[in-house]
TrEMBL record:
Residues 100-304 form the TonB-dependent receptor-like beta-barrel domain. The lineage of its organism: Bacteria, Pseudomonadati, Pseudomonadota, Alphaproteobacteria, Sphingomonadales. It is found in: Cell outer membrane. Pfam families: TonB_dep_Rec_b-barrel (PF00593). Keywords: Cell outer membrane, Membrane, Receptor, Signal, TonB box, Transmembrane, Transmembrane beta strand, Transport. Its main location: membrane. Residues 1-20 form the signal peptide. This is TonB-dependent receptor-like beta-barrel domain-containing protein. It is a multi-pass membrane protein.
């Protein structure tokens, strides 16, 4: 299914005599091949009020239908351009900064037995920045990184209705992706070339075992234990918008989470994580985090609030606040021209812990200075 995202356009002030416009374009496609079979042994009735961790959806066994194998191919491309409106020829392609991300996913899921589902596949990504510094001037210099083979595998054992066990392995990559969106970086051409030679992408390899227990339809308990490496973690220090390689570490940790759907409209959750971080060339450190969150949804309205208390990061950062607050409000308008429209207002406060970045289950992607800054964002999303 092909979808496009329409984001609000913002004017970014770069200097007293020039402004710039950030244009974001996204395209994607998903293709699925299904092999018929008479197997339907993993059938179970949906639970009306069950609240599951977000990652469970990606690893769910194949529900009752007419297939025992599902091959999926997904492709996604996004482009952000920085237009210097003060230039004499603003549409000259050599005067445009551009950040482009291309990503694909190939995945095969099949039933091994009555209660066992296996998933194997890989994804690839390429991130390319042209004129990644608006003060460098016109040219064809690029900041680029790519890895076309990042494997992942997952094995799920569904023991009855209440307990599910899973084991998975995954690799991913995150790379710097900023093209003047935050304004001039103040680099001359030689310094920019030095950044291009020395900047490395952040890479991760992780093994995780997880148990999910549903003692009641509205209650879910989850325990995950994981370990692996996080290499060349990218950070932005202070108000800087240039990435810094903060180092590598081996991480072992655990996450305990409780999700409860109190009413059809209201749910709450508690999550505790602890990790042992062995920094390369440094000492052992410990990180832990405790969060309490709640979500309310009624009709077109949805609101969420999360309070998080963190320990000190294993690697020193400029902002080491112990308490974080995240919140958001979404309102789904009636369809316009047959297409749904959603208005959103979100307040973000990113996690500074190394173990927090390690525990995320998202795919490989880009990293920008704005991703690690406290922010309030208003947006409109139109479905096509």
């Amino acid at each position: 299914m092909k979808r496009a995202m329409l984001s609000f356009l913002s004017l970014v002030g770069t200097c007293p005599v020039a402004q710039a416009q950030d244009l974001a374009l996204e395209t994607g496609i998903r293709f699925s091949l299904k092999r018929p079979s008479s197997l339907s042994l993993l059938a179970y009735a949906p639970q009306a009020y069950r609240v599951s961790p977000p990652r469970m959806e990606a690893a769910n066994p194949v529900n009752a239908d007419d297939r025992d194998q599902d091959i999926q191919i997904r492709f996604h491309k996004s482009t952000q351009r920085f237009l210097r409106t003060g230039a004499a020829m603003p549409l000259d392609p050599h005067m445009l900064s551009r950040s482009r991300m291309t990503r694909y996913v190939m995945e095969d899921r099949w039933l091994i037995g009555d209660q066992v589902t296996a998933t194997m596949g890989w994804h690839g990504i390429k991130i390319s920045n042209r004129n990644a510094n608006v003060t460098v001037g016109p040219g064809r210099d690029r900041l680029r990184t790519r890895d076309w083979f990042l494997p992942h595998a997952n094995l799920v054992l569904q023991t009855g209705q209440a307990l599910r066990l899973s084991l998975d392995y995954a690799e991913k990559l995150r790379a710097y992706s900023e093209t003047g969106i935050s304004g001039p970086m103040g680099l001359d051409h030689d310094t920019y070339l030095q950044l291009r030679r020395t900047l490395k992408p952040e890479t991760q390899s992780r093994v995780q075992m997880q148990a999910d227990w549903t003692p009641a339809p509205a209650l879910n308990l989850s325990l995950a234990v994981h370990g692996g490496r996080l290499d060349d973690q990218l950070r932005f220090t202070g108000r800087g918008i240039l990435p810094v390689n903060s180092g590598s570490a081996r991480i072992e940790g655990a996450i305990l989470a409780v999700h409860h759907q109190a009413t059809p409209q209201w749910q709450w959750s508690v999550r505790y994580s602890g990790a042992r971080v062995r920094v390369s060339g440094g000492a052992m450190a410990h990180e832990h985090s405790l969060s309490v969150g709640t979500t309310w949804q009624s009709g077109p309205w949805r609101a969420a609030l999360a309070l998080v208390r963190n320990s000190a990061p294993a690697l020193p950062v400029h902002d080491q606040r112990a308490m974080r607050i995240e919140a958001g409000v979404d309102y789904a308008l009636a369809e316009i021209g047959g297409r749904p429209l959603t208005m959103s207002l979100h307040m973000s406060d990113p996690d500074r812990l190394m173990s927090g970045a390690f525990a995320r289950d998202d795919l490989s992607g880009s990293l920008r200075a704005s991703d690690q800054a406290r922010a309030v964002m208003a947006s409109a999303r139109l479905g096509w």
